[in-house]
Write a structure and sequence with these properties.
With about 240 residues, the chain is an alpha/beta fold. The chain folds into two domains: about 5-35 and about 80-120 and about 165-244, Rossmann fold (3-Layer(aba) Sandwich), CATH 3.40.50.1220; about 40-80 and about 130-160, 2-Layer Sandwich (SIR2/SIRT2 'Small Domain'), CATH 3.30.1600.10. The protein contains ten helices and nine strands. The strands form two sheets. A six-stranded parallel beta sheet has the order 3-2-1-7-8-9, sandwiched between helices. Strands 5-4-6 form a three-stranded antiparallel beta sheet, with helices on one face. Helix 9 (about 200-205) links the parallel strand 7 and strand 8. Helix 6 runs parallel beside helix 10. The longest helix is centred in the first third of the chain and has 16 residues, at about 60-75. The model has no long low-confidence stretch (mean pLDDT about 95). It binds 2'-O-acetyl adenosine-5-diphosphoribose and zinc ion.
Length: about 240
C-alpha cells in the first residue's frame, strides 16, 4: 500500500493518534449476517424499523413489537463477531485512550471483547419494566410474549432507545468526551441519518479530529469526513491496523 493512498493516510493518522474513537452502525454487523436497518433485508413483514422502534408502536401493539424483537433475537443469537469487531478490540488494546460508540444493539462488540464502549441505543438482551423501571438481562430465544417483570408483574419492554426517546445522560457524557477529545474518529458502517449519532462526525471534526469513514457506499457523512474508504468493514478495518 502506497503511503500516500487514502488507506495509508488513515493508518498514519491512527499511528500518530494519542486518542482514538470509533462510531459503528449496522454495517459492521452486516458482515456477521445481521441485516442492516435500511437495506431491503432489514424489512420484517413489510414493516420498516421506524414503524416498530417507537414508544407509540409499543403502546399500540406491544405483541407486534415483541414479535419483531424475537425475530431479531433469533437471528442475532446465531451470529458471531467478525474481523472488524475483532480489529476494534485490538485497537482498544493498543491505544492508551480509546472509546467505542455503537448504535448497534446486537451485543457483538461485547461478544468480541470490547470493554470501553457505549451502546447508545441499548442492548437487545436487556428488557426494562414499564412499571418499576428495573432492567433485566434476558437471553431467552424466543422471549415469552408478553413478558412480565419478576418484581412487580408489569409489562417488560425492550431496553432500547427508540425513535423519539433520548440517550442516557451517562452515554451522552461519555460520547461527548470521546468525540471532543479524540485525534482520530473512525465512522464505520452507519448510514449517518439517525441523530444524535449522525452529528458525531461533525462534532469531532469541529473539535479538531481527523475523521475517516468506512462504508460500502457513500453516505451523507462522506462530505463531512476527511477520507471516505469504500468497502466491507470486515476487510477494511483489519487492514487499517496493519503496520500501525
Ligand atoms: P443503516 O441500516 O441505516 O445503515 C447501514 C450502513 O452500513 C449503510 O450506510 C450501508 O452502506 C453500510 N454497510 C452495509 N454493509 C456494510 C459492510 N459490509 N461494511 C461496511 N458498511 C456496510 O444502519 P445504522 O446507520 O446503524 O436505531 O442505523 C442507525 C439506527 O437506525 C440504528 O441504530 C437503529 C435504526 O433504526 C434503533 O434501533 C433505535
Ligand atoms: Zn417491575
Amino acid at each position: 500500500m502506497a503511503p500516500g493512498s487514502d488507506l495509508g493516510i488513515v493508518r498514519q493518522q491512527l499511528s500518530a493518534a494519542q486518542s482514538i474513537t470509533a462510531l459503528t452502525g449496522a454495517g459492521i454487523s452486516a458482515d456477521s449476517g445481521v441485516p442492516t436497518f435500511r437495506g431491503t433485508d432489514g424489512l420484517w413483514r413489510n414493516y420498516r424499523a421506524e414503524d416498530l422502534a417507537t414508544p407509540q408502536a409499543f403502546e399500540r401493539d406491544p405483541r407486534l413489537v415483541w414479535e419483531w424483537y424475537n425475530w431479531r433475537r433469533e437471528l442475532i443469537a446465531k451470529k458471531q463477531p467478525n474481523d472488524a469487531h475483532k480489529a476494534l478490540v485490538e485497537l482498544e488494546r493498543r491505544s492508551s485512550d480509546f472509546w467505542l460508540i455503537t448504535q448497534n444493539v446486537d451485543g457483538l462488540h461485547r461478544d468480541a471483547g470490547s470493554q470501553k464502549l457505549s451502546e447508545i441505543h441499548g442492548n437487545i438482551w436487556n428488557a426494562r419494566c414499564t412499571g418499576c423501571g428495573v432492567v433485566e438481562h434476558n437471553h431467552d430465544v424466543p422471549i415469552s410474549i408478553l413478558p412480565s417483570c419478576l418484581r412487580c408483574g408489569s409489562l417488560l419492554r425492550p431496553h432500547i432507545v427508540w425513535f423519539g426517546e433520548s440517550l442516557s445522560t451517562d452515554d451522552l457524557d461519555d460520547c461527548s468526551r470521546a468525540l471532543k477529545h479524540c485525534d482520530v474518529l473512525l465512522v464505520i458502517g452507519t448510514s449517518g441519518v439517525v441523530y444524535p449519532a449522525a452529528g458525531f462526525a461533525t462534532l469531532a471534526k469541529e473539535a479538531g479530529a481527523f475523521v475517516a469513514e468506512i462504508n460500502l457506499d457513500p453516505t451523507p457523512q462522506s462530505a463531512v469526513v476527511d477520507i471516505a474508504l469504500h468497502g466491507r468493514a470486515k476487510d477494511l478495518v483489519p487492514l487499517l491496523l496493519q503496520s500501525i
